[in-house]
Amino acid sequence: MIESLTVNLGARSYPIQFGVNAAAAVRAEVDALITAGRKVVVVTDRNLANAQRDTLETMFGGQPMLVLEPGEETKSLTELGRVLDFLAEHRIDRGGALFAAGGGVIGDLAGFAAASYLRGIAFYQVPTTLLSMVDSSVGGKTGINLKAGKNLVGAFHQPKGVFIGTGLLTTLPPREFAAGMAEVIKTGLLGDAALFAQLEAKTLTVESAELGAVVRRCCALKAGVVEADEHETAKEGGRALLNLGHTFGHAIEQVTGYGHYLHGEAVAIGLAAAARLSQKLGYIGAVEVARIEAVLTAHALPVKLREALPLAPLMTAMARDKKVRAGALRFVVLKSLGVAATQGDIDPKLAEESFREVGA
Ligand code: NAD
Ligand code: MG
Questions:
Q1: Closest CA to 87 of 100, 74, 76
Q2: Do 143 and 37 have their domain in common?
Q3: Which of 145, 176, 181, 253 to mutate to test the pocket of ligand 1 (most atoms within 8 A of CB)?
Q4: Does pTM top 0.90 for this prediction?
């Protein structure tokens, strides 16, 4: 029942294991580590600890567990300090292993703690949100936020393994499931036309028999992109392609204040805007834009801003986005449904018009 996929990064390669229930596989890994004389600690959040008490007990029963407050604010210097102190209190040495059981917040924070504690200890991802299963648990980006902005401090630190049990998603709030679907749809759009067509033919829900296969497909695509450009240094394409819709999305999140839109919701509107930009550049037609919006809408995602936003701050935020190099507006555009490319020197007027068309 458990299937596996390898992220091939030479000495940093690791398996991603998939199943409806991954608890036994996690337990086996924990037991193997302990048998080898290595200590195991766990970081999770309170929502998980409440909603998945039994599963966490099966996976980690007997190991020290730090339960943090849920929410983006947890990705902070203060909470990083708590995780590091927790590791020290339990006398974790270079052979110790940290398991992150939770969404992207816990994965990013605990991963960064594992990257920096004793200059790096082993860590494992047990993602529990759709977004973390298809996106944040794979690829080795870890980090925290500063007051000045999101993800400003971090490290590349690949996990030793990723355990994905899609059965955990039954307790995830529907709005969070939809937010994860934005990254799934993004994945289809940027590199998997058949996945996009599948989502178009049949809306994916937490009950869908295809859920596990879809998650796996997203991980496979991300793994391939990461294998080719682990540290996001490619001049064109590479990991930056995973930011399709994100330049617009980040601007929306920044201008509205984080939390007003979930990240996936902002990305959904961003995908609609990126589709319109790609249309203006002559790559796709109105029919394709409509198909993209229909798939987003079918998956309970917005394609227009809930309330109009002033254009000027949105454009300023986009110019400041870290994916924008040397002043020229740089975007990930769609060449067709399933094929994305990075493109620099985009006339800001086109981006502005695209923003206006999604409600700015
Ligand atoms: P999250 O971690 O905040 O989880 C969303 C909510 O769901 C939280 O309230 C959480 O407590 C709850 N939850 C999680 N699993 C649950 C379950 N099975 N049942 C019930 N409730 C559950 O959010 P997220 O969307 O998973 O992650 C967002 C974070 O991921 C952001 O900080 C973002 O920057 C980061 N991210 C990182 C990468 C990367 O490559 N490292 C990629 C994308 C996003
Ligand atoms: Mg994202």
A1: 100
A2: yes
A3: 176
A4: yes
Domain that residue 214 falls in: 174-358
Do 75 and 119 fall into the same domain?
yes
- State the total domains in the chain: 2
Q: Are residues 148 and 247 located together in one domain of the fold? A: no
CB under 6 Å to ligand 1: residues?
A: 45, 47-48, 51-52, 70, 72, 75, 102-106, 108, 128-129, 131-132, 135-136, 139, 141, 150-151, 168, 171-172, 176, 263
**b/e sequence 207-225, b meaning 16+ C-beta within 10 Å:** eeeebbebbbbbbbbbbeb
- What is the Å distance from ligand 2's center to 36 Cα? 37
Q: How far apart are CA 42 and CA 100, in angstroms?
A: 6
Nearest residue (CA) to ligand 1, atom 38: 136
In whole angstroms, how far apart are CA 173 and each of 51, 165, 212?
11, 16, 18
Enumerate the active-site residues. Answer: 119, 141, 183, 222, 236, 239, 243, 246, 250, 263
CATH number at residue 207: 1.20.1090.10
pLDDT at 83: 98
Residues 126 and 267 in one domain: no
ipTM: 0.99
Q: Which of 134, 169, 204 is the last residue of a domain?
A: 169
**Nearest ligand 1 atom, CA 46:** 11
Residue-averaged pLDDT of the chain = 96
Distance 139 CA to ligand 2 centre (A): 13
Tokens of 350: 């086109």
Residues 240 and 348 in one domain: yes
Per residue in 165-212, pLDDT (tens digit) is 999 999 999 999 999 999 999 999 999 999 999 999 999 999 999 999
Cα–Cα distance measured from residue 202 to residue 97, given in angstroms and rounded to the nearest whole number: 40
Binding residue numbers for NAD(+): 104-108, 128-129, 141, 150
